[in-house]
Design a protein that fits this description.
alpha+beta, 673 residues, 31% helix, globular
Length: 673
């Protein structure tokens, strides 16, 4: 089997870049191999998943042929999510340009009106820059995470992979995604080529893949195009459209390789224009503009354009510990993650995404009011379509990345109680009202009901931000964010003169504050701890000055900061400028994990806030930020965690990490002047 990894290993997570179209994404290694792609949407079954099982999961590779030694380099087309993988050898220099087309109604390249939604296409452009080079392309899909078999048929311009299996689909933007919506259906994808000389079916493999060999000379270029057998055009009414939509009509007019090549050229140029126009809205002009820009582009890729939902990561079951069980599905929208993402994007000039998310969350809240079995007024997470059912299951036929099992899809934490989400939600609403558009009365009425529920229930135990599976506690982070919820509610009500039970909210806000100070601070440890009655630390407390719960120079927070910055062997959480989430507690899972990237950026930002009056802390923050930048990969991407050898761990790329990088860079640059 053609693959860039040997029989005993998998490519490092940090060797991957990503392309996407705000419907889904594809992971691309430095060797030109696409080894993970859910299709057609983020939460669909995986079309390629050799990253989770190198034998059973499919992949799509394009690599130099018969060249034992070659170097490869990757970079993004400036200010875009178009990826270039360049191969350098004695025979010449060639490159694969990977992208997923995105066009808008203002693009005059075609008649399509997609409202900036992506085509359901994956394009792999092959070019030779110098010399003459031969390439081998190998494509083998693995429908539905390798659970559905397929057949191969020849077409005019390539091949068609056909699979009959359970096709899951959503029932509208805010229906219960995938609930009672399975049907046996023909699933098919075309892989077509703009070069008529390439016969993709000539070398069909026993594994269900096809191999093509292509020789190109300097200046030549061609493209492989993967597309669905049905039009992928998500509407805001009844889901995927029928064949009458212009996108299908446009494609149906492509009768030969030459017409396909010309159409692909237009899509390529339109996609460049889309991303560069979007990036031109960025207002950040500080010291780390390139890294901030890349993080913003990642967050945009993780936005599901049809609904405005934002996924935590586009992958599932990439391990937090190699060989361990800490493998989760992050292809959903956490209220917390999305709210933090909005803050990061709004701070650097991107407000449209905030508006789309607010519309989405408003509909989710409205539908949640009609559910009788709810534990809270809203769930902690939803599907990208607005559904509430995220049943967790194990895919036991896959061995997992580097044999890290089980491979999980769905997420059982969806039913947990996590009271902190109300603080993150209200903070994002407050900021959106301040920097974006004023909230409507109808939305405000829903928020009032939520806060009134929280006024009666904030003393509940919960699973906390870290979603522990060892039982509920009175987590200090959750209490801080409950305080934030009422604080932002009161601020918003006063700012807009909106009707609200101010006396109740003010009383509860102050009661929460006193409760945290009396029960959340441990006098022996001289720090706020992970939960009431504990002597263990939690890096989540670093957010306290960031949300204005406490001054960064308050004696209690300063001593907490000092405790966190001790080495783990001394009871702290800091290891060579990297921060662990919490210390010494049982979270209900076996094994250990790496340092948590968002916690490192939170520490940098807390030091920055304290550095306004203490120059030594500002210097620490600057150095730590520069050190943290060295842990990104070659194109500026981060996973959720960092292992002891500096390797990426967890789902990838991670929204949490990139949004916290933006926030830390923004505030550090502003404080330094």
């Amino acid at each position: 089997m053609y693959c860039n990894c040997n029989d005993d290993d998998y490519p490092p997570l940090e060797s991957h870049a990503i392309v996407g179209n705000m419907l889904t994404t594809a992971m691309v290694t430095t060797a030109g191999d696409i080894n993970f792609m859910c299709y057609p949407y983020f939460d669909s079954g995986a079309m390629f998943c050799s990253l989770l099982d190198k034998n059973k999961g499919g992949h799509f590779s394009i690599q130099p042929t018969n060249i034992d030694r070659f170097k490869s380099k990757q970079f993004y087309w400036p200010d875009t999510n178009i990826l270039v993988t360049r191969f350098l050898s004695d025979e010449g220099v060639g490159q694969v340009v990977d992208y997923m087309p995105v066009v808008t109604k203002n693009d005059h390249c075609s008649s399509l009106d997609m409202d900036a939604h992506g085509y359901g296409w994956l394009v792999r452009r092959l070019q030779v820059i110098r010399g003459t080079m031969s390439f081998t392309a190998y494509c083998r899909p693995s429908f539905n995470f390798g659970r559905d078999a397929h057949t191969i048929e020849s077409t005019e311009m390539g091949v068609k992979f056909v699979s009959k299996g359970k096709l899951k689909h959503h029932s509208g933007v805010h229906g219960d995604a995938y609930k009672d919506n399975e049907e046996l259906a023909d699933q098919s994808i075309f892989v077509e080529c703009t070069c008529p000389k390439v016969n993709m079916l000539k070398h069909e493999t026993s594994e269900g893949g096809v191999i093509s060999t292509i020789q190109l000379e300097e200046g030549d270029h061609m493209a492989f195009i993967l597309r669905s057998g049905k039009p992928i055009c998500y509407t805001n009414k009844e889901g995927p459209s029928d064949s009458s939509h212009p996108i299908h009509q446009e494609i149906s007019n492509l009768h030969n390789c030459d017409e396909l090549r010309k159409f692909e050229d237009k899509l390529f140029n339109s996609t460049i224009k889309f991303w560069q126009k979007w990036m031109s809205k960025c207002t950040y002009q500080g010291r780390w503009r390139e890294m901030v820009g890349r993080s913003a582009l990642v967050l945009k890729l993780l936005t599901f354009a049809p609904t405005g939902a934002i996924v935590a990561a586009p992958t599932c079951s990439l391990p937090e510990e190699l060989g361990g069980e800490r493998n989760w599905d992050y292809r959903f929208t956490w209220i917390r993650d999305a709210a933090f993402t909005l803050y990061a994007l709004m701070r650097i000039g991107f407000t449209e995404e905030a508006g789309a998310f607010m519309s989405w969350i408003q509909k989710c809240i409205n539908e949640s009011e009609h559910k009788e079995d709810k534990k809270m007024p809203i769930q902690i997470m939803y599907t990208i379509h607005g559904g509430c059912h995220l049943v967790e299951e194990h895919l036991d036929h896959l061995e997992g990345y580097k044999k890290s099992s089980p491979v999980r899809v769905g997420n059982g934490a969806a039913d947990q109680v996590q009271l902190d989400i109300f603080g993150e939600l209200m903070d994002s609403v407050y900021l959106y009202n301040k920097y974006g558009t004023q909230v409507s009365y109808e939305f405000w009425s829903h928020l009032v009901k939520i806060l009134n529920w929280l006024a009666d229930n904030w003393k509940m135990k919960d699973e906390g931000i870290w979603e522990v599976r060892s039982g509920q506690q009175q987590f200090v982070y959750s209490k801080i964010m409950c305080w934030v919820a009422f604080d932002r509610g009161l601020r918003l009500a006063d700012r807009r003169s909106l009707p609200a039970p101010r006396a109740l909210w003010m009383r509860v806000r102050d009661e929460i504050y006193e409760d945290i100070q009396s029960k959340g601070y441990n006098e022996q440890v001289k720090a706020y701890t992970i939960h009431y009655g504990s002597d263990k630390l939690d890096a989540g407390i670093l957010i306290a000055p960031l949300v204005f719960f406490i001054s960064p120079n308050d004696n209690r927070f300063v001593s907490t900061l000092e405790a966190i910055m001790r080495k783990p062997k001394d009871g702290g959480l800091l290891c060579n400028s990297l921060v662990y989430r919490y210390s010494g507690g049982d979270d209900g899972l076996e094994g250990e994990e790496g340092t948590f990237n968002i916690c490192t950026f939170w520490l940098i930002e807390a030091l920055t806030r304290a550095g306004a009056k203490d120059p030594s802390k500002l210097a620490q923050a600057r150095l730590m930020f520069e050190e943290m930048l060295t842990y990104s990969n070659h194109v500026g991407l981060y996973s959720e965690e960092i292992g002891s050898a500096g390797q990426s761990l967890g789902n990838y790329p991670q929204a949490f990490t990139h949004l916290s990088l933006i926030s830390a860079a923004f505030n550090l640059d502003r404080t330094m002047g």
